[in-house]
Design brief:
The chain has 484 residues and is of the alpha/beta class. Helices cover 37% and strands 21% of the residues. The protein is globular.
Length: 484
């Protein structure tokens, strides 16, 4: 018998619906059903997510699945982290969710530390990397907004989309763990943190673990899509948590790099690690599957490339993935930038910002698109190497290899740069790790896969990976930005 699972994997720039099929002989196949853009929309100078457009795309994916004559065992949704919507007492949304790149998040962390709770105290409870767009800081910054005043519940984006499908509100653990709201030791929403901004835990749905059934598709959605009432599962709602769960690892001696719009590098741990070292280096403790913790750092990733491409397309220059690699390989520019520099957060013209940064820091100036791409790829590899050194320091086990998953794992040129910079074997793939994790967590929920170890065993059987061995490299200067 074949078991079908429908996964919606929605990132900060695009989303897709993917049908996963697991056979009785443990053969796993993936089929992309739909793909759609996800763009922040600018309203009066502020950035929002069009949650209604995403809901329509989800229903479209369901309808397409029905048209194929397939009724899945279940449906699961994962998205990016930290952002949330507001649901009123009557069940309607009070407005569009703010986007984490909205200008109102700039300086939000410092405002919280000044008026609510100190940085060290907050980290000691939550163990989360301090970033201005963390959910807690957004809630504090926006709490006087009309939508927040009238909110009965604050609902993270994947849970909000599941609510629109089922009518039931939950707070899935891994997505909630991105926002500085939880105590990872007690695994609950921390009252001290929440009360510091004048709200209470009742503003959130019940906290549930990955694999929990949220509810059945509502009658309205069933009528509109033609899908019978199937369960909607709270998978690891944070896309990185689903991706890490899908790492094809046979033991625990690895670090991971989830490479997409954001790069998230870290290790999987049985327990949170919150101490002076992790505080000083801003290392985060986010929730994983089966009670694990994901120790990681957020690093700006393919956002730099995506924003360059957007500018180049306006001038009639569009490049495929292979084109970009070829251009980078032909370049000889040796400039190094800090990918996490604030000027790269939301620029109007990314290539110009890279040029300005190189001029300001007396780096070789990029003269071609290939120069920009080589600078980005080399700088990312160096940044990964610096961050990996931090995890080697705190890991309770030897890190013997680096698993690179997500869309960026297709970049063989970058993978080799990473292996050379980190001096560790790089295992690339699967590119669709988040969707694979989403699908397989549904399979665990449905009782067709035993647990996380069994899930990874099946993934290893089905997913092709590529190994990159570090080459001997000359000693080169390492860019070590402040705070790393």
């Amino acid at each position: 018998m074949d078991y079908h699972y429908l996964a919606f994997d929605i990132g900060a720039t695009s989303g897709r619906s993917i049908l996963g099929t697991l056979s009785a002989s443990e053969e796993l196949t993936l089929q992309e059903i739909t793909r759609f853009p996800n763009r922040m929309i600018n309203i009066n100078g502020n950035l929002y997510w069009n949650i209604y457009s995403l809901f329509e795309e989800i229903k479209k994916g369901i309808r397409e699945t029905v048209s194929m004559g397939i009724v899945p065992q279940s449906i699961g949704i994962d998205t990016w982290g930290v952002d949330y919507g507001c649901v009123s007492e009557d069940g309607t949304l009070t407005g569009l969710p703010n986007a984490y790149r909205d200008r109102r998040t700039i300086g939000a962390g410092e405002k919280f530390f000044t008026s609510c709770m100190g940085a060290r105290e907050l980290y000691g409870i939550a163990g989360i990397q301090h970033l201005d767009f963390n959910t807690l800081f957004q809630l504090n910054e926006h709490r006087d907004d009309c939508s927040h005043i009238h909110a009965s519940k604050f609902v993270f984006v994947p849970d909000l989309l599941s609510y629109l499908l089922t009518g039931n509100i939950v707070t899935e653990y891994t997505i909630a763990s991105t926002g500085s709201l939880l105590n990872p030791i007690k695994r609950n929403i921390d009252e001290r943190i929440i009360e510091s901004i004048g709200i209470d835990c009742s503003k959130f749905g019940p906290l549930v673990e990955p694999g929990t059934t949220i509810g059945m598709l509502s009658d309205a959605v069933c009528r509109e899509t033609g899908m019978p009432p199937v369960p909607v599962i709270a998978v690891a709602g944070h896309d990185t948590a689903s991706a890490v769960a899908a790492i094809p690892a046979e033991d625990r001696n690895f670090a991971y790099l989830s490479s997409g719009t954001w790069s998230l590098m870290g290790i999987e741990s049985d327990t949170p690690v919150i101490n002076e070292f992790t505080f000083r280096h801003n290392i985060t403790n986010e929730g994983g599957v089966e009670g694990t913790s994901r120790l990681l750092k957020n690093i700006t990733g393919m956002w730099l490339v995506e924003e360059c491409l957007k500018c180049w397309r306006k001038n009639g220059r569009d490049y495929s993935y292979d084109d970009m690699v070829s251009l980078a390989e032909k370049s000889a520019n040796n400039a190094v930038i800090n990918p996490d520099a604030p000027e790269f957060t939301a620029p109007d013209d990314m290539p110009h910002e890279i040029l300005s940064y190189c001029r300001k820091h007396r780096e070789p100036l990029p003269e071609t698109d290939g120069d920009c791409l080589r600078i980005i790829f080399r700088s990312l590899a160096r940044r990964y190497s610096d961050v990996l050194d931090l995890f080697k320091h705190i890991s309770s086990f030897d890190i013997e290899r680096l698993h690179v998953v997500g869309g960026g794992s297709r970049n063989r040129y970058l993978n080799q740069l990473i292996a050379d910079a980190c001096q560790i074997p790089v295992i690339a793939g699967p590119a669709e790790a988040t969707a694979v994790g989403n699908i397989m967590l549904q399979a665990i929920s449905g009782g067709n896969v035993k647990n996380l170890a069994d899930m990874r065993r099946i993934i290893c059987k089905n997913i092709e990976t590529e190994k990159f061995t570090p080459k001997s490299v000359h000693h080169e200067r390492r860019f070590n930005p402040q705070g790393v």
